[in-house]
Amino acid sequence: MRISSSVRKTGIFFLVIGRLIRTLFLRPPAYTKPNAIPRRRSIAIRVVDCGSNNGVEQEIQAMFNPIYDAERYGLRLVTSPRHADVLLVTGPLTRNMERPLLAAFRAMPEPRRVVTVGDDVEGGGVYTGSYAIIPLPKEILAARAAHVPGDPPAPDQILQKLLEVDFWAKSN
Amino acid sequence: MSIESYEQFLDLGRTFGVEIHRPGRSQLHFLVESAPKLMQFCSRLREESCWLIMLVTNDERELEDNCFKQYYFFTHSELNVFIVIELALSPGLETYPSILPIFPSVAPFEREIADLFGLRPDKSEDQLVYQTYLHSCYPQRLFPLRRDWDRGELQRLSSNFEQESNPFFPSLAKQKGEGELDLPVGPIHAGVIEPGKFTFRTSGEIIERLEYQLGYTHKGIEHLFQREYDLENGWRLAEKVVGDSSFSHSLAYCKAVEVLSSVVVPPQALLLRAIFLEMERITNHLADCAGLVHDIAFEIISSELSVLREEMMQLNGRLTGSRFLRGVNRPGGVVLGHSFDGKIIRPIIRRITERFLSIAQTLVEHSGFRDRTSGVGVLSRETALHFGVTGLAARASGVRRDFRIQHPFGPYSDSDVQALLQGQAEGGLPISISVEMNGDVFSRFIQRVIEVWTSYCLIEYFLDKWENCPPEELLSPLRFSEQGNFEWGLGYVEGWRGDVVYWVMKDKFNRIYRCKVRDPSTLNWPGLAAAVMPKSFKRETALADFPIINKSFSLSYSGNDL
């Protein structure tokens, strides 16, 4: 189809003007770009299994494999609660594990947060009604910043939650 | 005289007890009247190289016999037969005759019974360790699996976490030699792993003795089965006993219920069950090898293996909707959300297996890997037989325990499959490994490689036999007998760690009266402790070797603690 030269010139004019307006006036501000999130994200994670059946642990380990690679975001596993910022608590809390869990939590230096992972932690799941399961202690719930639902949650879901949560916000 | 046939076992049992008829030809049930007869029978079984599968205690004081009953399950190394010995304990007595001197593998069960039922073995020497499942945060004399246990007393219990649980280990009470040190590690470990407390008696770096205390993940599963679940939906809890063996546990449970309901599972469902069982085996062997190599600090190979494991998990998710193959097994068959398409499995599993075998070839030729794993954590064949070690750890030590060979179900009974499992099929492992299986960490790694290859061949074989069928034909409805007696059924499957056995007794209303869960880890933990301790090996175990040995066994804490 042939376009007449006057139509073509009008079209090019509006194209150029539009682009000029967009670059000069309608630039999106930097903080809405998805890749540039200027908040502190690097955390040292200690994982404590409070009685889980190892499914969640395997998915947390999978979070550090080359496919999901949590370490590129600055999330790293540490071997002692004294080095940790965030405690990942998995599994329904058994009576036998209450003391070790509290010992680990109390060993963490301030500021510290807790993230509970898996549906079992919230009220037991399939284990509801067992004599051996107790609810999480109040001090751990008070420090809880997030909960990752799932039975067990997939590694990308855990990673997504850990990246979304702003641990050090005033409200948390 | 060694026993070679079913009839000879029948005659042997009849000399010691009364035979109770069981349907089918695979289970021989004998009621034994007295302790001496039990001891003699067990000694004979030990001579015939029978293995103890498990010991179940049942509170039958409400039933007709008004006593606690103990059921001993044995299996033979060659024949497809289970020998069940039933012993009624004297009412009012809280002791039972112990077969520990004959079968040392009964020790974990005796500890469990002491905690959960309150029954002690008579003539109990100091070897029995208490407080394994119910630590000191539980009140004394709390026996949750007794039917008359009142849960109210637990509500009145406040958290008693000030008192640390320190059971008495007689072996550690011995005088320490010069320079010896007791090093407690746990219950929370440095890695992302389940909790368990290990106490090492070390002289310098060398481990003289390992004592372990488990039970930290005790969730009261057997009590939950009785209280909250009935026969149709007990598989939901069975899947959650051990997270990475969901399929094998739920399959063993479903098989136990199918025995009770005498339902015929459709053959295509059995084929699917076999395929998924082998897929679970491959997935977990890959994960274990990744963890083992990671503990050896060979991160590049470990990362590759974890990628392979992730690909298997994603395949599991695509096929069943669950990365851990959950929600697939039902009593009576298999339930899948959409029709099973075998075509997508083949190329993925072939690629994964080939990649895994080439990685294994690299590792076998790598001097660093061999130095760190050869001669480390040797579990000799005699020790494995002594402790009744089962499954993968036993096979790597030369003890051929495999329920796929000895008690096959469904498509495993085919002669081609049996030839493949026994390593006699044409065309063996495509990579060349000449290794003597002496039960060290390297042998267990090679055993995993062999099993991944075998599972790949089995999946190919089963996929050849698969025909597409609609989902309705994969599940048979359960039908329980109208009389509703207190019957029991045994379900058993070769999971990837070893044989998973479920014993389910139902009551008149088709609820679960008692469900005994036995993960292979229960039998293997003593084997791990034995593999760590030096006993005339060429190389003593240093503390740094312990994570590698632990990972090479890769036992389940949650499956042991229940």
Structure characterization notes:
The complex is a heterodimer of chains A (172) and B (562). Chain A is α/β, with parallel strands linked by helices and 172 residues long. Chain A has helices spanning 5-24, 55-62, 98-107, 138-142, 155-164; strands spanning 43-49, 75-77, 86-90, 113-117, 144-148. A 5-stranded parallel beta sheet of chain A has the order 2-1-3-4-5, sandwiched between helices. Chain B is α+β, with helices and mostly antiparallel strands and 562 residues long. In chain B, strands 1-2-5-4-3 form a 5-stranded mixed beta sheet. In chain B, strands 8-9-10 form a 3-stranded antiparallel beta sheet. In chain B, strand 13 (488-494) and strand 14 (499-506) form a beta hairpin. The mean pLDDT of chain B is 88. At the A-B interface, strand 1, helix 2 and helix 3 of A face helix 5 and helix 9 of B.
User: What value does the average pLDDT of chain B take?
Assistant: 88
| Share in helix of chain B | 25-40%
Radius of gyration of chain B (CA) equals: 23 Å
Mean pLDDT of chain A: 87
Strands ordered across the widest β-sheet of chain B: 1-2-5-4-3
Distance between the termini of chain B: 40 Å
* Largest interface, C-beta within 8 A: A-B, 49 and 53 residues
Instruction: Report the total helices of chain A.
Output: 5
Percentage of residues in DSSP E strands of chain B: 15-25%
Structural class of chain B: alpha+beta
| Individual helix count of chain B | 19
- Let me know the number of strands of chain A: 5
Largest sheet of chain B: 5 strands, mixed
**Number of DSSP strands of chain B?**
15
**Main pleated-sheet profile of chain A:** 5 strands, parallel
pLDDT under 50 segments of chain A (min length 5)? 30-34
